[in-house]
Known about the structure:
With 71 residues, this protein is α+β, with helices and mostly antiparallel strands. The protein has one domain (16-68). Helices cover 20% and strands 17% of the residues. It has helices at residues 16-22, 62-68; strands at 30-35, 38-43.
Amino acid sequence: MISSKITSKAQTTVPRSVRAALKLDVGDTIVYAIEADHVVMTKATAVTVESPTASFDEWSSENDRRAYANL
């Protein structure tokens, strides 16, 4: 069993062996799932965010893409 303590600010250090098992690096995000009487911690996966205008056909011309490219 691997453990770490929680500080007075509710922070903890993820132990090296856990970081290695999850392939965590600086800047990575971790997510928690509460399942009954325990918590599962995993490395968050990158989510691809589609352009908010992708579903609007009226904004699909080349002129529109150029006009909104730098917003």
